[in-house]
Write a structure and sequence with these properties.
The complex is a heterodimer of chains A (978) and B (255). Among the domains of chain A are: 31-154, Roll (PH-domain like), CATH 2.30.29; 157-262, no CATH class; 263-364, Helicase, Ruva Protein, domain 3 (Orthogonal Bundle); 857-977, no CATH class. With 978 residues, chain A is an alpha+beta fold. Chain A contains 43 helices and 14 strands. Helices cover 50% and strands 8% of the residues of chain A. In chain A, the strands form three sheets. Chain A has an eight-stranded antiparallel β-sheet. In chain A, strands 13-10-9-14 form a four-stranded antiparallel β-sheet. The two termini of chain A are 66 Å apart. Mean pLDDT of chain A is 78; it is low at 31-42, 185-193, 572-586, 785-793, 837-843, 845-910, 927-950 and 963-978. With 255 residues, chain B is of the alpha/beta class. The radius of gyration of chain B is 17 Å and the shape is globular. The chains are: A alpha+beta (978), B alpha/beta (255). Chains A and B meet through helix 12, helix 18, helix 22 and helix 25 of A and strand 2, helix 2 and helix 3 of B.
C-alpha cells in the first residue's frame, strides 16, 4: 500500500555498449548468477566492432554492415539494422579461416558446427582487421577451454528445427496437420526420439484451422530456409525470414522461433537446468505473488482445453511461480498469466520461462513491475505517436474527452492476446518477437487509422471501447467484401491491418520508440511518484495535528531519505511464521531503518544536519551533511511504537506530532521520556549525562557561550538537586557532608526535579519553550547555493554544470583555488541561532548555591589541559570546571577537525561527576570552529575577522593549526589577566 | 442483449459506474450477472478495465449504465483514476470470505471520497455469500434476508450446505460489521452472490434511486451548473432499501 520506491529515480539509460547488447539480445554474462561466475575468463576478453560485408555460401546477396565481437558472441547487423542480422554463440563456431583471396581483401570464412559457412569481408583498415582477428581467436580459445563447444549438440536436440532438416523425420508420421502429435506426446522422450521442446498444443491441439493457416507450406518454407541460413542458435536473419514471420509462423515451429527471434534461446542455452533449479530451491514457498498466481490460474485462457486440465494449470503455475521467485521485485502481475498461458501452448515450460524473462526484462521493461511504469510510459508514448501520426483522431479525442488508454492499455499489456481472437493475436506476437516492441505501436496506430472514420463519430470512452471490440471480432472478415475481384475479397481485415501497420507506419522505428520513451520518462515518473504520495497520505490512519501540506512535506523528506539511503529489502518472514494467520494479512509497507531515518531527520530537524557555509572567493555555498549522534538513534527507537526496529510513514508522522505542537512542559516531558530508557519515571545518573550530551549535540554549532554554559549549569544543578533529594541512608546525620552513594544506573532524577532544573535556566527554558519544537521544520530545506557566483568569473562555467557529481567536482576545485589564493573559509551554520549576540544571558540564581558562578583561571587551565586529570569529586570543582567552560575562548577552524566528538557514555563504575566534567571539557575543546565566546574575551577582532576579512581568518587558522596549545594558553593568560 | 453503443437517440440517462475491489472478489462476475444474467466460474482477470453497458428502468426513467469493471490487483491501482474519473456511481466489492478484502474496499472508499466526483454514489457489496451459511448471529435483519433469498436463489443451495457441513463457516466478514462501516461512511450496503444472482440487481436499482439524476441531466446538457445539491445521503435510506426489495425483484431491470 504505502511502499516507497526510489527505483524509478535511479533508472539509468543504457550506454552505447549496453544498447548493442540489448539489440543483439545477448544475455548479460552473469545472468542472475549463483556464484558460478567467479574468475570468468570472459571478463578479460575484449569487445570490438568492425565494418564488414556479410555473404553466405549458397545465398544470393551480400550485405554491408557491422560485425561485433561480444565474447562469447559474434553478432552482425546490416547498415539499416533490420535487413540482416545474426547473433551467434562462439561455441557454435568450428573453424575460422582466412582464405587467400585477392590482395587487399581481408575476409574470414566462419564454419559453424552444422557445416554452414559464413563469409565476412572485413572492410576496415588492415590493423583494425588484424586486431579483430586476434581478439576473435582469443575469444574462441576461451570458449574451447571452457568446454562450451560440447554443449551445442545436446542443446540442438531440444530444437524442433533440427528435426525438420532431416531427410527422414522420426516424428513426422506422428503429427497431425496442425503439428500436434497423434499420440498426444506420450512417446516424447522415450527411446531414441530426440526430446524436442514443445508446448501444450502438442497434446491439446493448436488453435485455428491448419488448412486455413497453410501450416504445411509454411513449414516447408522454413525448412528450406533453415538448411541455408542456419537455425536456432545460429539462425541468420535475412529479409525473407522477416517476411515469413509476417505471414505467420507454423504452429509446431512457433515456440522455437519465438525464443530464437527474441533471443531468449541464449538464456536457455547458457543456463541449462536453471529453471528446474529455481523451482526446486523455492519449493513450497508462498508469497503475495504465489497467492495472486493461484487466483488467476483458472482464469487464463480458460476456453483453451489445456487450461481445463491439471496438466495445463500445473505448467502455468510452475512457470509463473518460477518467474516470480527469480524476479522477486516484479513478482507477478495480472496479464502475465495470459501471456504465459498463450506462449505455453507453443513452448515448453523452460522455454516459456526464459521468454517471459526476456519480455519483462528487455522487450517491455517495467510493464509488469509494481508501479507498472513501463506500461504507463508506453501509453504516453503511444498517445504522442497518435498525436503525431493521426492528428485528426487525436483532436477529436481531445474534444470529446476520450482517453486513448482505456482501450489501448490492455492491447499493450497483454500483447493483443486478450483483445484479438487468438489466431490473429499470435501473429502479432510473431512479429513482436521478430521486430521488437515497435510492433505493438505500429499495430495500434494501424487499428486507429483503419477505424478512423468511425472513431471521429464516437462521443465517449464507452463507444470507443465498443467500436474496438466490434472491429477485433471482425478481423477474420473480408476487408473488401464488395470488391468484384475475388483476390481482393479474400484479403481479411487482419491482413489489411498488418499491411497498414508495416507499410504506413514503417516510420515508427526502434529508435523512435526509445527516444520517445526517453522523452516522457521523467513526466511519467513524476506522476507515479505524485500518485504514491497522494495515496500514502490518504492511507495514513491519522494525520495527527498536521495539515495535508505538512504531511506532504514529511512524505517528501521520507522519500528523499529513501532515495539517498534505500532501506533494506523486506525479508520474508520464515515459513513457520506464515502459517499463523490470525491477523489480517499485512500489506507491504515501506519501513525505514536507523540509517535512512537519520537522512530523514536531517531533512526536518535543523540540528540533525551539519551545515557549513563555505566561501572560497568564487562562490558561497552551504555544504550539508547528515549528522550522526546517539540522540538520533534514540529518537528512532523512541518513535518505533510497534517495536519492529523500523519506522513507517505513520510512525514518523505520529512521532513528529509529539514534538512539533508541544509547549514548554510537554517538551520537557518529551525530552525526559526520550532519555528515560526503562520508562520508570526516573533518569539514572547515566541518563542525566546522556541528556547533557544530547543537548550539547543539539547546540554544537551555536555561536556564543550561552548554550554551553547552560548545559554545564544544567549538569551541576541536576546532580546537586538529585543528590539533595536522594533519601539519606539510615544513620547518617543531616549535616553529613558525604554525598549519598548511588549506582549510576539506578533511578535518580524524577521528571519534576528534571523540570525544575531545566526551568532554572533561562536559555534552556526558552529552548524547550519554542526552539526545540521550532528546530523541526516542515518546509523545504533551502537550496544548497546561496549565490552561484558572486563575481561572474565562473558564472559561465557554472551554468554548464549539470550533474551532482560535476557540482561536487566543481566545489572541490573552487575550494582548492580558494585555498591557494587564501579566500577559503568555512563557517558552521547554527541549528538554533538564538543567542548569537555577544552578551551572555546570565543564569538564574540557583536556589541551592547562590554564588556559584565566578570564573577562575585555575580551573580553566585544568579544563583545557585535559579533563582526565581532573579529580573532580566534589561540587565546587564541578562548578568551577563548568564555569571555566564559559570563560575560556577558542577560535578554531579546520576542515578536518570539524567533527564533533563527545566522550562516550560513562563506562560502569566511573564516577558520574568526573564523567560530567569530562563531557563539558571535551565539548569545550571540540568547540565549533569560529565560535565566538564571551566571557574574558576583550572582543579582539574576532567579529570583524570572520565576517569581513576572510584572508586574515585563514592566517589565524594556520596559526591555530601550528600551535593551538599556544593559542589556548595565550587566551588563558588573557583570561587570567582580565 | 447489450444495446448498441450508438443509441444516443433514446432519452435514457447515462450513468457511469465503476467497479473497484481487491483481485478475485468477483467484480467481473457481478457485472456479468447484472448485464447478461450469466455466471462463469473461471472468468479471465480483467486487464486494465472491461467496459459493459446495461439499461435499467426505474419508475418512468431509463438509466443506461456504463460499467467500468477494473482490474483488482494492487499494482493496477494507479490506473484506477483513469476509470473512475467522472463516474457517478461506484460499486466497491469485497469477498465475505476474506477479511483483507474489506480492508482493501475501505481504502477504495476513502480514495473515491477524496479523489472522485464529489457526488459519487458508492455502494459496498460483500460478494460470494453463496459460500457462507446464513449468518448465525440471529439478528432480525439477516433472518428476513434469508427468506428473501429463497425467491432469488436459482442455484444449488445444497452445495453451500455441503461445504458448511464439513468445514466451519468460511465467512470472515460479519454482515453487521460491514454494514456498520457502510453506515458510518455513508455507503449503500449489500451482500451479494454473483453465482446465485442474489442481491445483484438490488445493488444497481438502489444506486439508480440514489443518483442525483437531475444534475446528471443538467450537466450532460452542457449546462455548467453545479451538480452538487448534496441531497440524497445514501446512508439515510437504509430502511427504504429493505422495504422495497421484495416489490421490485428482478423486473426492475428491464433489459
Amino acid at each position: 500500500m504505502s511502499t516507497i520506491s526510489a527505483q524509478l529515480r535511479n533508472f539509468k539509460e543504457p550506454d552505447r555498449d549496453e544498447q548493442s547488447l540489448l539489440f543483439f539480445a545477448i544475455p548479460p554474462v552473469h545472468v542472475k548468477d549463483d556464484g558460478a561466475g567467479q574468475n570468468n575468463p570472459e571478463d578479460s576478453l575484449h569487445k570490438m566492432e568492425i565494418n564488414a560485408m556479410l555473404s553466405l555460401d549458397g545465398a544470393e546477396d551480400s550485405y554491408p554492415g557491422k560485425l561485433h565481437l561480444f565474447p562469447p558472441y559474434l553478432a552482425f547487423a546490416s547498415l539499416d539494422r533490420k535487413s540482416v542480422r545474426f547473433t551467434i554463440p562462439l561455441c557454435t563456431v568450428r573453424r575460422v579461416e582466412r582464405p587467400n583471396a585477392r590482395a587487399g581483401v581481408y575476409s574470414l570464412s566462419i564454419l559453424l558446427w552444422h557445416g554452414m559457412k559464413i563469409s565476412v569481408q572485413l572492410t576496415s583498415l588492415r590493423p583494425a582487421a588484424d586486431q579483430f582477428c586476434a581478439l576473435l581467436s582469443m575469444a574462441l580459445k576461451a570458449e574451447l577451454q571452457a568446454g562450451k563447444m560440447k554443449t551445442v549438440k545436446p542443446f540442438s536436440k531440444t530444437c524442433y528445427s533440427e528435426n525438420l532438416i532431416l531427410d527422414t523425420s522420426p516424428v513426422a508420421d506422428n503429427e497431425r496437420e496442425d503439428g500436434s502429435l497423434i499420440d498426444g506426446g506420450r512417446k516424447v522422450g522415450e527411446g531414441n526420439a530426440p526430446a524436442f521442446h514443445g508446448g501444450l498444443g502438442l497434446k491439446f491441439k493448436f488453435p485455428g484451422d491448419p488448412k486455413k493457416l497453410r501450416e504445411a507450406s509454411k513449414t516447408k518454407l522454413w525448412t528450406t530456409y533453415f538448411r541455408v541460413h542456419g537455425r536456432h542458435l545460429t539462425l541468420l536473419r535475412y529479409p525473407q525470414a522477416t517476411r515469413f514471420v509476417q505471414v505467420g509462423l507454423p504452429n509446431r515451429l512457433r515456440g522455437e522461433m519465438w525464443e530464437t527471434l527474441s533471443g531468449s534461446i541464449y538464456l536457455r542455452f547458457t543456463n541449462p537446468g536453471r529453471y528446474k533449479q529455481i523451482l526446486e530451491e523455492n519449493k513450497g514457498r508462498t508469497s503475495t505473488s504465489t497467492e495472486d498466481i493461484e487466483k488467476d490460474l483458472h482464469r487464463s485462457l480458460p476456453e483453451y482445453l489445456a487450461y481445463q486440465s491439471e496438466e495445463g494449470i500445473g505448467a502455468l503455475r510452475r512457470v509463473l511461480q518460477a518467474f516470480s521467485y527469480n524476479n522477486p521485485e516484479t513478482g507477478y502481475c495480472q496479464a502475465m498469466n495470459i501471456l504465459a498461458a498463450a506462449i505455453l501452448i507453443y513452448m515448453s515450460e523452460e522455454q516459456a520461462f526464459w521468454l517471459l524473462d526476456v519480455v519483462c526484462d528487455r522487450l517491455l521493461p517495467g510493464y509488469y513491475s509494481p508501479s507498472m511504469h513501463g506500461t504507463l510510459l508506453d501509453q504516453r508514448v503511444f498517445e504522442s505517436l497518435v498525436t503525431r501520426c493521426l492528428p485528426v483522431i487525436h483532436e477529436h479525442f481531445q474534444e470529446v474527452d476520450v482517453q486513448l488508454s482505456v482501450a489501448s492499455l490492455p492491447w499493450f499489456l497483454s500483447l493483443y492476446i486478450n483483445s484479438m481472437p487468438m489466431i490473429f493475436a499470435f501473429r502479432v506476437v510473431d512479429c513482436f518477437f521478430c521486430m521488437g516492441p515497435k510492433v505493438l505501436f505500429q499495430v495500434g496506430l494501424a487499428i486507429l487509422k483503419i477505424n478512423g472514420e468511425q472513431l471521429l463519430q464516437i462521443q465517449d470512452d464507452g463507444q470507443f471501447i465498443h467500436l474496438m471490440r466490434d472491429y477485433f471480432n471482425s478481423l477474420g472478415d473480408s476487408a473488401h467484401p464488395t470488391s468484384s475481384d475475388p483476390r481482393m475479397r479474400a484479403i481479411t481485415k487482419f491482413q489489411e491491418l498488418l499491411l497498414v501497420s508495416f507499410r504506413e507506419f514503417a516510420v515508427i522505428t526502434e529508435e523512435t520508440i526509445f527516444s520517445e520513451r526517453r522523452r516522457f520518462r521523467n513526466e511519467i515518473i513524476a506522476s507515479i511518484e505524485a500518485f504514491s504520495k497522494r495515496s500514502a497520505i490518504r492511507n495514513l490512519k491519522t494525520l495527527e495535528r498536521f495539515n495535508k501540506e505538512q504531511v506532504g512535506f514529511i512524505y517528501d523528506a521520507l522519500f528523499k531519505a529513501v532515495c539517498v539511503e534505500p532501506p533494506p529489502a523486506p525479508v520474508p518472514p520464515p515459513m513457520s511464521l506464515l502459517t499463523t494467520k490470525d491477523t489480517i494479512e499485512e500489506r507491504p509497507e515501506t519501513r525505514i531503518g536507523p540509517k535512512t531515518f537519520k537522512v530523514f531527520l536531517s531533512e526536518i530537524a535543523t540540528w540533525a544536519r551539519d551545515e557549513k557555509i563555505v566561501m572560497n572567493g568564487f562562490q558561497q555555498r552551504v555544504d550539508r551533511e547528515v549528522a550522526d549522534h546517539e540522540l538520533m538513534d534514540r529518537l528512532f527507537w523512541f518513535w518505533d511504537y510497534s517495536y519492529r526496529g523500523a519506522l513507517t510513514f505513520q510512525d514518523l508522522v505520529t512521532g513528529l506530532d509529539g514534538i512539533i505542537f508541544s509547549d514548554l512542559m510537554d517538551n520537557i516531558e518529551w525530552f525526559f521520556n526520550l532519555h528515560d530508557k526503562n520508562k520508570d519515571g526516573f533518569l539514572t545518573k547515566d541518563e542525566v549525562l546522556t541528556v547533557s550530551e544530547s543537548l550539547l549535540f543539539i547546540f554544537r554549532f551555536e555561536i556564543g557561550d550561552a548554550y554551553l554554559g547552560a548545559v554545564s549549569r544544567f549538569m551541576s544543578n541536576a546532580f546537586e538537586y538529585g543528590d539533595a533529594l536522594l533519601p539519606r541512608p539510615e544513620g547518617s546525620g543531616e549535616e553529613d557532608d558525604a554525598t549519598p552513594q548511588i549506582e549510576s544506573n539506578q533511578p535518580y532524577l524524577s521528571l519534576a526535579t528534571f523540570r525544575m532544573v531545566l526551568l532554572a535556566d533561562e536559555v534552556l527554558e526558552s529552548f524547550f519553550e519554542t526552539d526545540l519544537s521550532a528546530s523541526f521544520r516542515l518546509e523545504p530545506v533551502p537550496l544548497m547555493e546561496l549565490s552561484p557566483s558572486n563575481n561572474g568569473f565562473l558564472g559561465g562555467i557554472w551554468s554548464n554544470i549539470a550533474t551532482d557529481t560535476n557540482v561536487k567536482l566543481f566545489h572541490k576545485l573552487s575550494d582548492e583555488v580558494g585555498k591557494t589564493i587564501g579566500r577559503h573559509q568555512v563557517i558552521h551554520r547554527p541549528s538554533i541561532g538564538r543567542y548569537t549576540s555577544i552578551e551572555d544571558t546570565r543564569p538564574r540564581e540557583s536556589l541551592l548555591t547562590p554564588a556559584m558562578r565566578h570564573s577562575s583561571s585555575e580551573s580553566s587551565l585544568k579544563a583545557t589541559s585535559g579533563a582526565s586529570s581532573t579529580e573532580a569529586q566534589s561540587r565546587p570543582s564541578v562548578s568551577s570546571a563548568a564555569s571555566a567552560a564559559t570563560s575560556a575562548t577558542l577560535i578554531a577552524t579546520d576542515a578536518e577537525r570539524h567533527q564533533f566528538a563527545l566522550s562516550p557514555t560513562s563506562p560502569a563504575g566511573l564516577d558520574p561527576l568526573a564523567q560530567a566534567t569530562n563531557v563539558v571539557a571535551n565539548a569545550f575543546l571540540e568547540r565549533t570552529p569560529f565560535a565566538i565566546d564571551d566571557a574574558g574575551d576583550d572582543d579582539d577582532d574576532d567579529d570583524d575577522e570572520e565576517e569581513e576579512e576572510p584572508d586574515d581568518v585563514l592566517d589565524e587558522v594556520d596559526a591555530f593549526l601550528d600551535a593551538h596549545e599556544t593559542v589556548v594558553t595565550d587566551e588563558d593568560g588573557e583570561v587570567a589577566n582580565g | 442483449m447489450s444495446e448498441a453503443a450508438s443509441g444516443s437517440a433514446d432519452k435514457s440517462v447515462q450513468v457511469k459506474l465503476v467497479l473497484l475491489g481487491e483481485a478475485a472478489v468477483g467484480k467481473s462476475s457481478v457485472v456479468l450477472r447484472f448485464v447478461s444474467d450469466e455466471f462463469q466460474a473461471n472468468k479471465e482477470p480483467t486487464i486494465g478495465a472491461a467496459f459493459l453497458t446495461q439499461k435499467c428502468r426505474l419508475e418512468d426513467r431509463v438509466l443506461r449504465y456504463e460499467i467500468w469493471d477494473t482490474a483488482g490487483q494492487e499494482r493496477f491501482h494507479s490506473l484506477a483514476p483513469m476509470y473512475y474519473r467522472n463516474a457517478q456511481a461506484a460499486v466497491v466489492v469485497y469477498d465475505v470470505t476474506k477479511a483483507a478484502s474489506l480492508e482493501k474496499a475501505k481504502t477504495w472508499v476513502k480514495e473515491l471520497q477524496r479523489q472522485a466526483n464529489p457526488n459519487i454514489v458508492i455502494a459496498l457489496a460483500g460478494n460470494k455469500i453463496d459460500l457462507v451459511q446464513p449468518s448465525l448471529s440471529g439478528s432480525g435483519s439477516s433472518a428476513t434476508e434469508s427468506e428473501d433469498e429463497a425467491d432469488d436463489a436459482t442455484a444449488t443451495p445444497g452445495e453451500a450446505a455441503a461445504s458448511d457441513a464439513e468445514t466451519e463457516n468460511p465467512r470472515q466478514v460479519p454482515r453487521e460489521e460491514a454494514q456498520a462501516y457502510a453506515q458510518e461512511a455513508g455507503l449503500l450496503f449489500f451482500e451479494t452472490s454473483a453465482k446465485t444472482g442474489e442481491g445483484i440487481v438490488e445493488v444497481f436499482t438502489e444506486i439508480a434511486k440514489n443518483i442525483p439524476i437531475e444534475s446528471i441531466l443538467a450537466s450532460s446538457r452542457g449546462a455548467a451548473g453545479r451538480p452538487g445539491t448534496s441531497g440524497n445521503r445514501p446512508g439515510t435510506q437504509e430502511a427504504v432499501n429493505l422495504d422495497e426489495n421484495q416489490a421490485r425483484g428482478r423486473d426492475a431491470c428491464n433489459c
